[in-house]
């Protein structure tokens, strides 16, 4: 998402809070921002897991959901960025 914001010359704060990034993405890529709303669930894992003993609570199946959401978000962003990356 940060690469896409950079592509649109949209400044963003140093954050791992996906909702903040989605709010910035909304004006320039509204369809994509809406499609990525579920990815906000990943936000606690972007920061909390970096600090010992302060792990976000994990429930059975959370790792599979995290991988699925992260993969879907990456694929959606790369689909939009691909024409710029490939030079098309």
Could you describe the 3D structure shown?
The chain has 88 residues and is mainly alpha-helical. It has one domain (2-83). Helices cover 57% and strands 0% of the residues. It has five helices and no strands. 11% of the residues are buried. The mean pLDDT is 88.
The backbone outline, from C-alpha atoms, is globular
C-alpha end-to-end distance: 20 Å
Q: What kind of assembly state do the chains in view correspond to?
A: single chain
Which whole number gives the mean pLDDT?
Answer: 88
What is the overall number of helices?
Answer: 5
Strand content range: under 5%
Helical content stands at 55-70%
Integer count of domains: 1
Based on CA atoms alone, the radius of gyration comes out at 14 Å
- State the major sheet: none
Counting helices, strands and paired strands, the structural category is mainly alpha
* Strand runs, count: 0
Order of helices and strands: HHHHH
Poorly predicted runs are none
Task: Give a short synopsis of this structure.
The protein has 88 residues and is an all-alpha fold.
Throw out a few tags for this protein.
88 residues, mainly alpha, 5 helices
Protein topology:
Elements: H1 2-7, H2 18-25, H3 30-35, H4 43-47, H5 62-86
């Amino acid at each position: 998402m940060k690469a896409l914001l950079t592509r649109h010359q949209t400044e963003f704060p140093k954050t791992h809070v996906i909702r903040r990034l989605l709010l910035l993405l909304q004006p320039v890529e509204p369809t994509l921002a809406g499609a990525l709303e579920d990815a906000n669930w990943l936000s606690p894992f972007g920061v909390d897991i970096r600090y010992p003993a302060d792990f976000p609570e994990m429930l059975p199946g959370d790792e599979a959901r995290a991988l699925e959401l992260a993969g879907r978000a990456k694929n959606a962003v790369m689909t939009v960025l691909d024409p710029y990356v490939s030079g098309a």
